Amino acid sequence: MGGIADIAAGRLSAEELSENFQDMYPALDERQAHIEASRCYFCYDAPCMEACPTGIDIPNFIRKIQTGNYRGSALDILTENIMGGACARVCPTEILCEEVCVRTTQENKPVTIGKLQRFSTDWLMETGEQPFERAPSSGRRVAVVGAGPAGLSAAHRLSMLGHEVVVFEAREKAGGLNEYGIAAYKVPNNFAQREVDFILSLGGISIEYGKALGRDISLKELNTEYDAVFFGGGLGTVRSLGLEGEGMDGVYNAVDYIAQLRQSETKTDLSIGRRVVVIGGGNTAIDMAVQAKRLGAEDVTLVYRRGPEDMSATHHEQEYAQTNGVTIKHHAKPVALRSSDGVVTGVEFEYTQTNTSGKLEGTGETFVVAANMVFKAIGQVFVTDPVTASALSLDIQEGRIAVDDNRQTSVPGIYAGGDCVLGGEDLTVAAVQDGKLAAHAIDQYLRG
């Protein structure tokens, strides 16, 4: 039943693909923004502000939209979150600021804070203005490892504080997951790179591409050559299913495929199967499943081992996948890959249940889902070798870097933030906050 011949590129025309990968949600125009801003109660003890990981003064920026002060509104946002444009598009506002909006409790219709944030930040970026200025030079140099949200946030704030920053990035482009790991329909029109350009236009920040920690540079070298170091390298590898034949044709890591998809201009060069299975329950699994459907897959099934309430993807994301043609099956775990002549043809799953002690267990009953392509999206893990293999070994706890409240590691002068640190929330907005907090801690460290 099929095989590799059922995987092909160009299942849809260039025009169809272009339409399928348009903006997930149209931006508010000026009239719509004013109407939406007028719904805000401008609460004194604003619960939305408390729920924002970066502490944006949400009522204040919304009030400035209402009064036509778009520049001031954008500054309120970007002062706390320099990647406020990306976060307005990818942040799960439905479980953060909008979930606690007073309008939610009163009428189950929150102020669309994310869309208003996008309106303001887009307005400022379109002007081409760099609204921030650098402080007088401190004469200090800081190395930043990783040009993702955490690294770029730290670099921007450090530059504002007067330090020279050199960023070491393993890939060919900056942006991290915003550039390589998020669904194309969430950040279309090359937005991730436009935001990077906006950040770098401050000055005082240089990026050295193709430089990976542990391969081209080491912590010991950076600690010797620079006055401080910030590590924001993210998570390095994908979890394995632990099934026989995982390396066969037709089985892919979702994060690798999404990275390839994000770098394709037309999407016509991307091969996709007629029948696709995605294994996982997070945002990457949802992004992969929806994009497979939009590339032309006929049947896309996402399978998760627990119930919908246990998925790390929000209810909003799950619903979005289902309304975009994705079938979601819960309470099933993969137990075997089916194949023919070394090519995947399906996945065998076992139904699961939660026992009285809360532990997940199989029921013994199985079923098979046919597939030409199988995507693994069961989470990523931090590769510790680059930060433990040198003379400056960082403290690792539960597989991630241990840091204090200031994001300082066990080695003085070396800081870390983002997905790689213990307690990291795996959110862009949380990574941006880590970078900002670390930058201020580094500034205090450098100034004695």
Fold and architecture overview:
With 448 residues, this protein is an alpha/beta fold. It has three domains: 161 residues, FAD/NAD(P)-binding domain (3-Layer(bba) Sandwich), CATH 3.50.50; 90 residues, Fumarate Reductase Iron-sulfur Protein, Chain B, domain 2 (Orthogonal Bundle); 161 residues, FAD/NAD(P)-binding domain. 35% of the residues lie in helices and 20% in strands. The chain contains 17 helices and 19 strands. The strands form six sheets. A five-stranded parallel β-sheet has the order 4-3-2-5-19, with helices on both faces. It has a five-stranded parallel β-sheet with strand order 7-15-9-10-11. A hairpin with a 2-residue loop joins strand 12 and strand 13. It is globular, with a radius of gyration of 23 Å.
SSE blueprint and pairings:
Blueprint: E1 7-9, H1 14-20, H2 30-37, H3 47-51, H4 58-66, H5 70-80, H6 84-90, H7 102-107, H8 113-127, E2 141-145, H9 149-160, E3 164-169, H10 177-180, H11 191-200, E4 205-209, H12 219-225, E5 228-231, E6 237-238, E7 251-253, H13 254-262, E8 271-273, E9 275-279, H14 283-295, E10 299-303, H15 315-323, E11 326-329, E12 332-340, E13 343-354, E14 360-370, E15 373-376, E16 380-381, H16 385-388, E17 396-397, E18 400-401, E19 414-416, H17 428-446
Parallel strand pairs: 2-3, 2-5, 3-4, 5-19, 7-15, 9-10, 9-15, 10-11
Antiparallel strand pairs: 1-8, 6-16, 12-13, 13-14, 17-18
Helix pairs in contact: 2-4, 4-5, 4-8, 5-8, 6-8, 9-17, 13-14, 14-15
